Amino acid sequence: MKRVNYRGGLISFEIPNSWIEEYEENGGGTFYEDSPESGTLRVNVLTIKEKSSGESVNDLIKNSINSSTDIEMTNEYPSFKEDSIIESVCRTQENDIPITQYRFDCVHKTNQSDYLIAMFTWTVKTEFEKLDNYIKDFKMVQNAIISLGFGR
Questions:
Q1: How many domains does the chain fold into?
Q2: Can you give the CATH number for the domain in which 66 is found?
Q3: Residues with Cβ < 8 Å from 18, sequence gap 6 or more?
Q4: 122-126: long-range contacts, CB 8 A cutoff, minimum separation 24
Q5: Model confidence, pTM
Q6: Three-state secondary structure along the chain?
Q7: pLDDT in tens, 106-141
Q8: Which residues pair with 107 in a beta bridge?
Q9: pLDDT score of 38
Q10: Domain of 12?
Q11: Is 85 exposed, middle or buried (0-12, 13-18, 19+ CB in 10 A)?
């Protein structure tokens, strides 16, 4: 496994040594095995200022997920560092191909009175999502996200 220090260490996580890393100039990263049938992991990080509205950032994300008809919330759990992770799944189509997209919204309260939200998606063709090697890859991605490190 190799450690990814995304955007200079804003967040860090592990991926397999053989995976390709691609970064957008203005944010966003894509990680995948060099195979036409591999799943794809994407990440982007947002900063949100804390508001005094009384509604937590976690609640805002959950309400957004619950208001969408094609997304189902699957799990919410704390990571090792007491940050929260909200996991959801969406089954849709991309270029007429059925895909399954798992989304992980990782919420971290910083020392600067704002929040970092690391948004990961793991996308696979729906026809493959129940195959053993894809389940194994999903578990590896899920564990990497649970172990996610925030740099501030």
A1: 1
A2: 3.40.1000.10
A3: 33, 34
A4: 122/39, 122/40, 122/41, 123/39, 123/40, 123/42, 123/94, 123/99, 124/39, 124/40, 124/99, 124/100, 125/37, 125/97, 125/98, 125/99, 125/100, 126/91, 126/98, 126/99, 126/100
A5: 0.85
A6: CEEEEECCCCEEEEECCCCEEEECCCCCEEEECCCCCCCEEEEEEEEEECCCCCCCHHHHHHHHHHHCCCEEEEEEEECCCCCEEEEEEEEEEECCEEEEEEEEEEEEECCCCEEEEEEEEEEEEHHHCCCHHHHHHHHHHHHHHHCCEECC
A7: 888 887 767 888 999 999 999 999 999 999 999 999
A8: 84, 117
A9: 92
A10: 2-150
A11: buried
CA nearest to 22, candidates 43, 45, 8: 43
In angstroms, the CA 121 to CA 102 distance is 5
